[in-house]
Specification:
- The complex is a heterodimer.
- Chain A is mainly α.
- Chain A is built from 14 helices and four strands.
- In chain A, about 75% of the residues lie in helices and about 0% in strands.
- Chain B is about 35% helix and about 25% strand.
- In chain B, β17 and β18 form a beta hairpin.
- In chain B, α5 packs parallel to α6 and α8 crosses α19.
- The chains are: A mainly alpha, B alpha/beta.
- At the A-B interface, α9 and α10 of A face α12, α13, α14, β18 and α15 of B.
Chain lengths: ~325, ~500
């Protein structure tokens, strides 16, 4: 477009420059290095103080326990980077689990029907969250506060609060109890969610749009980006992942219950924020989210092994989360 | 009251030995183009910035303040364009915000609060309902609340920064009454405006700033519009502007319209007729609120068209949204680059590729190499001064940020390039570079539509200039029909005045 060709000198950054920058980043937490360090510190502390902590079995245990939070946190990362919040994820999980179990009990006891019903219900709740947020311009905090209550209520209504038993062995194997290449399937599904999340957020066009919408919605709009659609898609993704988490949970417990994982949305949000996402949008990493949820899972596990009473566990967990966010905030 | 104020921002001297004297009970108008130093002077008076040198005296006593609170204590109150009221509270609550009459344990004595607010407004003679919620009031009444709030306590000097820019003519009248009531109490008023007819209506004296220095103080009754415009624009700037237009004249303009609007109307526009030729730079001149920005936003699909038609290269087209406009080859460099143009916390590369993300992807996956190359090319071509395409936009200067916004639309060449105040907040050197970019875009065949408050800029750049008043094109001028900014300024004022019905003696 232009012949305006003043030569642009790109200053080559010297080695000392780079080293200073790395140090700055470490101190100010511009990259989530602090998070990795915090995780390692946590591992060392628990290893030294509990003889049972440092074992393959226990690590698999931590992996299994964090599965639900990790899977949903992938979606929540998209939502929070897009400057939104989804409080309804735990209720969505419960409702999706009920939908999956009921669909299987009604239609041929087929695991495929169950999977589709579970994922579909989750995605549908996400779609409603997204549409209400973007089309009616209601803050997502309020929309999802409402759907938190509605989805939980619906999950309880369908069976009058009774659990639904699942009997399909293939379903158990695929989502809950089998293993794939030696990895227990719940952990395998977590990895699948993470990889899909990384590809979508960091390598895909969709991710670019999510960052732009969260970084500056007006500028994104003025650049021709359909900000409403992009925001809605983030909610749908989160809902669908809540559905996936529901499949994993119900396959592990051979039943769907309407009252499971109450309050888990707070762990999910804490994991994402610990992982370096900005609540003001435009910033965050999937890998950070993974470490965020691992820290929460490790804390839960380690404190139990140390024999800390469960009320004290809550206090310690909350304090560590606040402290970690204070360190990693920018 | 103010003597020999100097202020530097980095390498830019924002104010040079500025003097200003305001007498008690006087309305003193402060004029100047954007960037002439009016806002800086106000910020110094209100304690937001400290002067590098110079003195401020209040009632003969030297004063110095390092914070807005100290300035307020000294009796200076500022009413800003963006109001500082709590919209959900009542007028009375707002007036006494932070100074509520209290009972024991911090309870507010509501009845006394109401009584005090009523008494104060009665004394001022301002007709406001103290119980009304501020958010429910029309804009002029909110502004009156703001003025009343500013006058609470000991006030000697009231500063009004473009108070009428978004008011209707009836509302202007209400506001002027309120100002009159303040001056009768002996308050001195500094009145900042772009509308010259208001100067003659309300002020006793006028001070003009140009390029950060005094360009004259006049007694309003003894001067006329022509002299004021001369002082605002400066004769020295008129001559070089004419010579700089020469290279532009060599550009050939294809006589086929690349964009045409006929009878386009919506909530802010009424029957706009406009055409932009291939390779033409077409200017839109008008005061703030005249609808000039809304014309660009309508073409870019950000406002719906209620009636009328648009055509791109002869094909009829109704913009359905920004994405649709971009597909048609329409590009917009918006007025506020921080809010509308850029994601400040993201890199240059991310910003430049934003409007065309799909072009840098295969099967939905980003081709990071292609995106980076594209951004580096744009950085080099537009000579953006940055470490590289991965630098955060926030770290760049205003001029370089604006070049990044241009870079978003650099490749492929847009058919229609819409520019809204392309050089606001840009220093002189970068401004010339941006002019070069605009001229090159036109030379390469884009039709350029540019909105600017800087009339010298419009005359220097444009092949044709349309005067926008009240959401319609009042007149279109060809290059040569008008050749200095002074004439154009007169024309704008005359059209604006006739629109407001404030018909008065206007020198031709």
């Amino acid at each position: 477009m232009t012949e305006l060709t003043a030569p642009n000198v790109v200053a080559a950054s010297t080695r000392s420059d780079r080293r200073r920058k790395l140090l700055q980043n470490l101190l100010r937490g511009e990259r989530p290095y602090m998070l990795y360090i915090a995780f390692v510190v946590l591992l060392v502390v628990f290893s030294l103080s509990s003889p049972w902590f440092l074992s393959v079995d226990n690590f698999l245990n931590i992996g299994r326990q964090t599965t639900l939070v990790s899977i949903i946190a992938v979606g929540m990362t998209f939502v929070i980077i897009a400057r939104q919040i989804d409080l309804s994820v735990a209720s969505t999980l419960a409702l999706s689990g009920m939908a999956a179990a009921l669909a299987m009990s009604q239609i041929n006891n087929s695991w495929i029907v169950g999977a589709i019903a579970g994922l579909g219900t989750g995605a549908l709740v996400g779609l409603l969250n997204g549409i209400l947020t973007t089309q009616l311009s209601i803050p997502s905090f309020l929309v999802t506060l409402g759907s938190l209550s509605m989805a939980r209520g619906l999950a309880m209504m369908v069976t009058n609060t009774k659990p639904v038993i699942i009997t399909n062995e293939t379903y158990f194997a695929i989502f809950g109890e089998g293993s794939f290449l030696g990895i227990p399937v719940p952990i395998a599904w977590t990895l699948v969610a993470m990889i899909v999340g990384i590809l979508l957020l960091h390598y895909n066009v969709f991710g670019r749009r999510i960052y732009a919408v969260g970084g500056n919605p007006t500028a994104a709009l003025y650049s021709g980006i359909n900000t409403k659609w992009v925001t809605t898609a983030a909610f749908v993704l989160t809902g669908a992942l809540a559905g996936l988490a529901a499949l994993v949970l119900s396959a592990r417990s051979h039943a769907a219950r309407p009252d499971v994982v109450q309050g888990m949305e707070l762990d999910v949000i804490a994991a994402v924020i610990l992982g370096g996402c900005s609540l003001f949008g435009g910033r965050g990493y999937i890998l950070g989210t993974l470490f965020g949820s691992l820290i929460i899972g490790t804390l839960n596990n380690g404190l139990v092994l140390l024999g800390v009473s469960s009320p004290l566990q809550l206090v310690i967990k909350g304090a560590i989360i606040v402290a970690a966010v204070a360190f990693t905030k920018r | 009251m103010v003597g020999g104020i100097n202020k530097r921002f980095g390498g830019v001297r924002a104010l040079r030995d500025v003097n200003l004297e305001v007498r008690a009970g006087e309305v003193h108008a402060l004029l100047g183009e954007n960037g002439a130093g009016k806002s800086t002077l106000i910020k110094i008076l209100s304690g937001v910035h400290a002067p590098d040198s110079g003195t401020i005296e209040i009632a003969g006593k030297p004063a110095a303040f390092d914070s807005p609170a100290r300035s307020r204590e000294a009796g200076i109150a500022v009413v800003y364009q963006d109001l500082s009221l709590v919209e959900s509270l009542s007028v009375a609550d707002n007036l006494l915000l932070g100074r509520e009459p209290r009972a024991r344990f911090g309870f507010v004595r509501k009845r006394e609060l109401m009584a005090r607010a009523e008494a104060f407004l009665g004394e001022l003679g301002i007709p406001l309902d103290t119980k009304a919620t501020v958010g429910s009031l029309p804009f002029a009444y909110r502004q009156m609340t703001e003025i009343a709030k500013a006058l609470m306590g000991e006030v000697r000097l009231l500063i009004l920064d473009e108070p009428t820019s978004s008011l209707t003519s009836d509302e202007v009248r209400i506001l002027f009454d309120a100002i009159g009531k303040a001056t009768r109490r002996g308050v001195g008023v500094i009145y900042v405006t772009h509308r010259l007819n208001e100067v003659f209506e309300i002020s006793q004296r006028v001070t003009v700033l140009r390029d950060g220095a005094n360009a004259g103080t006049f007694v309003t009754a003894e001067t006329d519009m022509k002299r004021l415009v001369n002082a605002i624009i400066g004769t020295d700037r008129l001559a070089p502007a004419a010579s700089r237009t020469e290279p532009a004249a060599t550009r050939t303009i294809d006589p086929s319209p690349v964009l045409s609007l006929s009878g386009v109307s919506n909530d802010r526009l009424s029957a706009v007729d406009l055409s932009v030729m291939k390779g033409e730079i077409h200017g839109l001149a008008g005061l703030i609120g005249s609808g000039r920005t809304e014309i660009l936003e309508t073409i870019f699909g950000l406002r719906s068209v209620e009636s009328g038609t648009l055509a791109i290269e002869g094909r009829r087209w109704l913009p359905k949204g920004a994405a649709d406009a971009i597909d048609q080859g329409v590009a917009l460099v918006p007025e506020d680059r921080h809010v509308q143009g850029l994601v400040l916390d993201h890199s240059i590369e991310r910003n430049i590729t934003l409007p065309r993300i799909p072009h840098f992807s295969r099967w939905g996956f980003m081709q990071q190499g292609a995106a980076t190359r594209r951004a580096e090319t744009a950085v080099a071509r537009l000579s953006v001064k940055a470490q590289g395409a991965s630098s955060l936009v926030r770290t760049l200067s205003g001029g370089n940020q604006q070049k990044v916004v241009f870079g978003k639309w650099n490749d492929p060449r847009p058919r229609v390039l819409l520019l809204d105040e392309p050089t606001v907040g840009v220093d002189v050197g970068a401004r010339e570079e941006i002019y070069g970019v605009i001229r090159n875009a036109a030379r390469d065949g884009s039709g350029v539509l540019v909105v600017s408050s800087d009339l010298v800029e419009l005359i220097e750049l444009c092949d044709r200039i349309s005067v926008i008043v009240d959401g319609r094109v009042a007149r279109t001028l060809k290059r040569g029909e008008i050749d200095d900014a002074e004439e154009l300024h007169h024309l704008l004022q005359i059209y604006q005045a006739s629109e407001q019905g404030v018909l008065q003696e206007l020198p031709a």
